[in-house]
Amino acid sequence: MKKTVLVAALLLATGAANAAPITALTITGGTFAMAGAGGSITPTTFADMTVGAYDGSAPSMPGSESDYAPTSIGTFGFGAFGAVAIYTAETDGVNSGFAAPSGDITGSDMTLDLSSWTAYWNGTSFNQGNSAVTIDSFDATTGDFAASWTSPVVGGAFNGQDGSWTITGNAAAATSAVPVPAAVWLFGSGLVGLAGVARRRKAA
Length: 204
Known about the structure:
Elements: H1 2-18, E1 19-34, E2 37-40, E3 42-43, E4 48-50, H2 65-68, E5 74-77, E6 83-88, E7 102-106, E8 109-113, E9 117-121, E10 124-127, E11 134-138, E12 144-152, E13 162-173, H3 182-203
Antiparallel strand pairs: 1-2, 1-4, 1-7, 1-13, 3-5, 5-6, 6-9, 7-8, 9-10, 11-12, 12-13
């Protein structure tokens, strides 16, 4: 019984050592599609996103993609509907309580919360975030990733439509995955061995 508990503790220690929060997140591209239209995302001023805080803001008025670049994570042309800007915020002016971007890297796995992902189009902002973004691919060596999600529009001209997003980017963790030192495993093996010796002596 004691041996089983010790092994379980060592396995838990291994998992804890390999997990690290994302501290740097860069958007390199992506796509958006809704209502039969869409476009490719062009990274702009805030493409190097801040983890744990919000980036950019809604433009002061409708304009072109180049007009939106100074305030945006990215921009794209929404078919014949005009330009769209992307930023992150706790509120889109109607809905509120969106968490700042965050995520974790555990070995070869990555999680990403983009609850606050917000789009600005034709004078209106609408949240398009998702707290459980699907990580389609992740390279633990380079930090490169591809992700996707869908989110419904609440209110405005596209109320009820689902926005479909893909993004590519790069993520870095606070620390690299650190394996449990060999000394820990040797210490654990030694304890298991001593427990066995003690058990045999007691039986004798």
